[in-house]
Structure formats: C-alpha cells, structure tokens
Amino acid sequence: MTALTLSTSSAATARADAVVVGVAKGAKGVVVAPGAEAVDKAFGGKLAAVLETLGATGAEGEATKLPAADGLKAPVVLAVGLGDAPAKGDAYDNEALRRAAGSAARALAGSKKAGFALPVEDAEAAAAVSEGALLGAYAFTSYRSNGGDGGKDAKGGKKNDAKSQPLAEIALLGAKPRDKEFKAAAARAQTLAAEINRARDLINTPSNDLDPKAFAAQAQAAAKEFGLKVEVLDEKALKKGGYGGLLGVGQGSDAPPRLVRIAHTHPKANKTLALVGKGITYDSGGISLKPAGHNETMKCDMSGAAAVFAAVVAAARLGLEVNVTGWLALAENMPSGNATRPGDVLTMYSGKTVEVLNTDAEGRLVLADALTRASEESPDAIVDVATLTGAMVLALGHRHFGIMANDDAFRTSIHEIAEEVGEQSWPMPMPTHLRKGMDSPVADIANMGERMGGGLTAGLFLKEFVGEGITWAHLDIAGPAFHEGSPWGYTPKGGTGSAVRTLVRLAERTAAGDLG
Length: 516
Description:
The structure is a single chain. The chain is α/β, with parallel strands linked by helices. 32% of the residues lie in helices and 21% in strands. It contains 14 helices and 20 strands. β2 and β3 form a beta hairpin. Mean pLDDT is 95; it is low at 150-160.
C-alpha cells in the first residue's frame, strides 16, 4: 500500500517527484489555496496567471501539470482544483480536499514520491487529504502480467509501464508530525484506507477466484492476523441449522454457501453493533436469468459483505471500545437442475416461509437468515449493507446509497454520519401499504411485491426478519458500490468500498456513546 508521512517541509524544499498544490475558482479567476505560498513565490506570484494560461479554472477534479520554477526542489508542480473558493475566513470543505487529493494521487501514478501542499490547517483537514490521497492511489493489479508492469514487449523484455503502479509515497507537507491529533489523524487514515482497499480488492476479484468458501477463508485469515473471533458455517451446518434462505439461493451452484460470523470485542465495551452484509459472490439471477448486459459486473454483488468485513477489521485495528459483529451471508446464485425455481417455497432460519416469485431477488433471502441470526444475540443495533435493488439506483443514481430504518432518529444519524465522512446518501421511507403486495397465497410472505417502489419493498421484506425491539437500518448501496465509468476524485473504476467509512464512523460514535 502507498506510504504516508507527515512532513514539516515546505512545498519549496520538499524532495519529491512532484509537489501538489490546490487552486480554486474565485470571483475574478483562479485562486491559489493555502499551502501553495512557496510555490506561488517561486513563480513570481504569478502561479494563478500561469495556470489560467494553461486553461485551468480551479474546478473540482481538474488537474494541471507544469514544470517547476527555479527555487523548487521538485521538478513538477501539479495543481488540483478544489471547486469554489470559500468565503473569506472560512476553511476549505473536507470533502473537496479529499477529492482533490484523490485526483492528484491518481494523476501521479507511477511516481515514487509526491509532496501534498494542500490546506491542512487542522487535523480534520489533514485526515481528509490523507484519506483522499491514499484512496486515490489505489490500483488493482493482481491479474496483470508481472504484477502490473505491463508484461513483456515484442522482444521479450519487460514493458516500461510504471504508470500502472500506484504512487508509492505521499508526504503531507506543512503538517505537524509531533502533534498528537495530526499523528492520530494520519494513523486512522492509513488504517481506514487499507480496509477500504481490502473491500475494493475483494469486489474486483473475479468470481472464479472468490466463491463463498474462498471469501470465508479471507475472513479466517484476517481474524487470525488481527485477533478477531470467527465462525464459519458450511453447507452441512447451514442445513442442520435450517438456514433455508442461504441454502435456497446457493443450491444451484457447485460452490456451496457459507455464513461467516466475524467479531471484534473490547473489554471496556458496553454497546454491541451488528453488521450484516449481502455476499452474493456471483449473481446470474438464477432461473430468473439476467439478460445479456446485466450480468457482466455481477462479481460485485458481494460488496455489502466486503464492506462489513472491512469495517469489522478496521474497528479491531483502531481498538474501538465497542463490540462489532459482522455477519457475511455468502452464496453464489446460479441456474442448474438443482436451483430454486420461481414458485418454490423456502423455510427460513426464522421459521417463516417465503414464496420465491423471482430468483433474482435473492439478496433479501440470504440477508433474512443473517438478520434473524444476528438478532438472536440482542445487539443494540443492526445495520445491513447490500447491493440490493436496481430500483434504488433508478431512484438515487450511481453516487448515493439509500438508507431505510425502523427508527427515524437512527436513520437520521446514519445519514448525518455518511455526509460527515463524505459518502453521499439519502434517507428513504418505509411505506406500510407496500407490505400487502408481498402477501402470498401459499406462504407467509413472497420475496417480491409491487414493481413501483421496489427498493422500499425490499426494505420492508428485510424488516420482517429483524428481532423485536432491535434498532435496525438498511443501506442499499447498489448505486455507488461498483463504478463503471471513468475514475473521479478518489473513486476508482470498479469496486469502491462504499459504506465502509460510514460503518466505521458509526462504530466510533457508538463507542463514544453518541448514539444513546
């Protein structure tokens, strides 16, 4: 992973391949952001004018490279846009800093070291820049020949494709390496980024290398490394325990399902948070087969489980004084002679029966079993995370996840936390009238309801399997979990690690007693 250091060096004296400065859109043109004073001085106070000549505007996501002026140790200056300049006396928005740092780190792929001279007036700003840079530097190269160096050229020699490798080191210039708050912010950013990138790696791994058994093995390895408790229920244990949802979804595949319990416990904890993740390692739709054009990226249907797994490990690595238990509901949804058919009835772990009207509405079935099992331990709150419905993508687009809950205050808290950490989200209702659409003539409930409001119906289905009196929220991350477009900010192409930051901050808030 990319290294991060705090440095007292200025942008002028930093020895690096490039120095990164921030620029913004002012009322009269480009404005040079704090942290870039030494660079601006080297350009005779005309850095903004030079950048404008090159077409820079200071807009968010913009990155402009130029040769360094005399007096700077680094040979290249990279100016990144921060968007609109704040009012006089106000600080730059942390999310703007996070995105700008991510854009810069990605633009400098292949470099050994870059000095970041963005505004870091306090520890929160330093954390934002650190997070953005570390996340923006991410690259998934596991399946590239020779570890991502581009393989060999026509003569058999290695191609010189260093740009496929991430930026090796980030030096946060003008920071305070001896300040406890700055040091803590940097350390947290490194842990958080490492775990988000763990989730990204899992999401990006092809399904032929990440079936339920392989995913469970990853959890077992992490548990051993970080002192977590782990339990894996295989297909025999699931059958013995009556986990009809997991078994029903997984029975069409040669790769049987798993239910993983992975837990961080702290001796001083007085609260327990349960996190439940949908882990469909490949979703063909089953007998209700997805059409061409809708199944090529379905390796990402385990993004919720990846987020939960990463958040639990992060909680352990950060030493949070809260118990965090992760439940990974892992299965592969495939069509075969053994697969569940539309019209079949499954008996769930809770004892409720479900008529399966559509085998492509499988995520709610595996989550139902995991929610019931998680409820048996009577946690203070349960949050499930899932790439659950296309309906939520239609409602909110590709950058926001939806939040539903059985407690309005809890839903509001999660929304505020998500916004605080830079994850776009939106609270969604749970209209009770939609429940009638899931009435079944043969079972307790059907796994489908009215077509309109499908994302809300899915949430109502999950609510049926949450224990009485337990506070619960559902995050539908179907939109932001897997990014198919061009990278932007610190968001890469492919798996994003959506919801990890929200879950970790929720755990921190719970540890601090801020959520009651």
